[in-house]
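User: Hi! I'm working on a homework problem where we have to compare a predicted structure to a textbook description. Could you give me the structure for the chain below?
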Amino acid sequence: MSSDAFELLLRFLYAQELPENLASAQIAELAQVADKFQATGLYEHCLFQFRTGLLVSNVVERLMCARDSGMVALEESALAYFKLNTHEFQSEVYVCVCVSVCVCVCVYIYIRI
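Assistant: Happy to help. Predicted structure tokens:
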């Protein structure tokens, strides 16, 4: 656990607040910490922040962070968002192919799993 995650854990436990714009990796790490210490309120808050922050432009990054952190609930949320918003994603996939074939392949693999 990083010192930043520990500081955020304490901040939430004592003040019931967190910064609004946490990075995907921070949310995933904080969700792991919350799960480890059985801080249900913090875990639910992380899940909420993760879900409400999902966009077509960041779903792949968030999916990869969730996968890397081993947080199944976060990963499932990202996959569900991707599947529900396929119509929006289709127009952006062509741009994505031009920018990074690797990212598109990752999305394809995650959808198929």
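For your comparison, note the following. Helices lie at 3-15, 24-36, 40-52, 59-69, 72-84, 86-99, 101-112. The chain has seven helices and no strands. Good luck with the assignment!
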